[in-house]
């Protein structure tokens, strides 16, 4: 039972009316209890209906969501299947170079051509999707795990903790994200987890701000006050009554930050600060292809760059579509 309804039920009982009235600062007359029950029922109906129907979205929003989801799903399928395809011999080993011609143009033998080191561009581009999605997923998850709890605590508790965290997050947010990631990458070094940490640091303030502002707004609602009056601990209020109401914008942030994280990861790879050299990575592939561009070897840079652009656009479209979906829902 919802805490507001439970409190109304208790206040209506002869044995508990006086105790309930002493513990609550607002009137719980029969009319108010009816309003509480009606409001609660409507809230639960909205939560049980889930996401709005597909037909209620505008055509542009549906196109954003469908296109973005299709692109991201395609890259995710590539990331999952590419090791199996390489194991079956359908795709060349991305680390194999000695048996291939150097700077070979795209052909039936090498669909995307080869690099000046002899690497197969097609194989390294597909394996680059696997590395990119691993780092981007880890980075966005890390930033959400840090920003969401801090935003909940700051918004609910307020006081000095809120002021300190606001100052800290504003300080981080004022720094350019790419510069902050480059600086941190110098400190932590190369690797999937290290790159994820370097990329994630600039997104923590965004999750913190959104969740904190929603928490400040929602914590004054009647159902939260009723939960407190019933003796719910702060941890229970945060986890049961606030968390689900304030994290509804997190999926939108997750997708939009993932689009930006792809570009930052590629920038780190281009500077030689991302993943180890033996791991196929799009940004590092662009760096290696620059020397061959003046000689007409365009394919070594074109296909990794196209993959970066496609995945970033797909994530951005998915984020915009989710934003419209949740906006129209509420």
TrEMBL record:
Transmembrane as UniProt keyword: yes
Gene3D superfamilies for the chain: MetI-like (1.10.3720.10)
Pfam family for this entry, one: BPD_transp_1
Membrane topology recorded in Swiss-Prot or TrEMBL: Multi-pass membrane protein
Single GO cellular component term: plasma membrane
Assigned keywords, A-Z: Cell membrane, Membrane, Transmembrane, Transmembrane helix, Transport
Domain ABC transmembrane type-1: 129-319
Chain segments annotated as transmembrane: 63-91, 131-157, 164-186, 250-276, 296-319
Major subcellular site: membrane
Key word Transport present: yes
Cellular localization per UniProt: Cell membrane
Highest taxon of the lineage: Bacteria
An annotated GO BP: transmembrane transport
Family of this protein: Belongs to the binding-protein-dependent transport system permease family.
Protein name: ABC-type dipeptide/oligopeptide/nickel transport system, permease component
Naturally occurring in which organism (per UniProt): Rubidibacter lacunae KORDI 51-2
């Amino acid at each position: 039972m919802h805490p507001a309804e439970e409190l109304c039920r208790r206040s209506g009982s002869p044995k508990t009316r006086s105790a309930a009235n002493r513990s609550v600062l607002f009137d719980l007359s029969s009319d108010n209890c009816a309003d509480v029950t009606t409001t609660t029922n409507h809230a639960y109906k909205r939560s049980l209906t889930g996401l709005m129907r597909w037909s209620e979205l505008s055509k542009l929003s549906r196109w954003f969501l469908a296109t973005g989801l299709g692109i991201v799903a395609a890259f995710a399928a590539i990331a999952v299947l590419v090791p199996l395809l390489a194991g079956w011999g359908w795709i060349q080993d991305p680390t194999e170079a000695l048996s291939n011609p150097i700077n070979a143009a795209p052909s039936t033998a090498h669909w995307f051509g080869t690099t000046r080191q002899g690497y197969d561009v097609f194989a390294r581009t597909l394996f680059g999707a696997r590395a990119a999605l691993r780092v981007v997923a880890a980075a966005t998850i890390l930033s959400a795990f840090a920003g969401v709890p801090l935003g909940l605590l700051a918004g609910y508790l307020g006081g000095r903790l809120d002021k300190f965290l606001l100052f800290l997050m504003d300080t981080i947010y004022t720094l350019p994200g790419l510069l902050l990631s480059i600086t941190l990458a110098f400190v932590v070094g190369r690797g999937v987890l290290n790159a994820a940490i370097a990329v994630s640091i600039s997104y923590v303030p965004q999750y913190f701000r959104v969740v904190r502002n929603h928490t400040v707004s929602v914590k004054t609602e009647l159902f939260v006050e009723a939960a407190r009056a019933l003796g719910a601990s702060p941890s229970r209020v945060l986890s049961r009554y606030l968390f689900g109401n304030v994290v509804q914008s997190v999926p939108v942030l997750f997708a939009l930050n993932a689009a930006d994280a792809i570009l930052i990861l590629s920038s780190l790879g281009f500077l030689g600060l991302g993943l180890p050299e033996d791991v196929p990575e799009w940004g590092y592939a662009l760096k290696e292809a620059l020397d061959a561009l003046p000689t007409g070897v365009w394919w070594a840079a074109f296909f990794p760059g196209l993959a970066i652009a496609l995945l970033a656009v797909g994530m951005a479209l998915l984020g915009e579509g989710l934003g419209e979906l949740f906006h129209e829902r509420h």
